[in-house]
Amino acid sequence: MQVTVYSTPSCVQCNATYRALERQGIAYDVVDLTQDAAAMEMVKSLGYTQAPVVMAGAEHWSGFRPDLIGGLKATA
């Protein structure tokens, strides 16, 4: 499963999300919303107004959600 974290610099919830994903052994990519206008528009089109936005397969959510991260399977 592809996991992408759309984040902003100095984002406390983003850093907590990275740590939680790493603890679960889940590989992820990071997209900086301040540097990628197309990504920012995509996130806004989904109705999100705060970072991080996590896209995990067909699921997506905003904010630090350890409950949802815990439900993801580790990727090799």
TrEMBL record:
Signal peptide, first to last residue: none
GO BP, one annotated term: cell redox homeostasis
GO MF term list: electron transfer activity
Keywords: Disulfide bond, Electron transport, Redox-active center, Transport
Classification via CDD domains: NrdH (cd02976)
Function of the protein: Electron transport system for the ribonucleotide reductase system NrdEF.
Similarity remark: Belongs to the glutaredoxin family.
Protein name: Glutaredoxin-like protein NrdH
Organism, scientific name: Allofranklinella schreckenbergeri
Gene (name only): nrdH
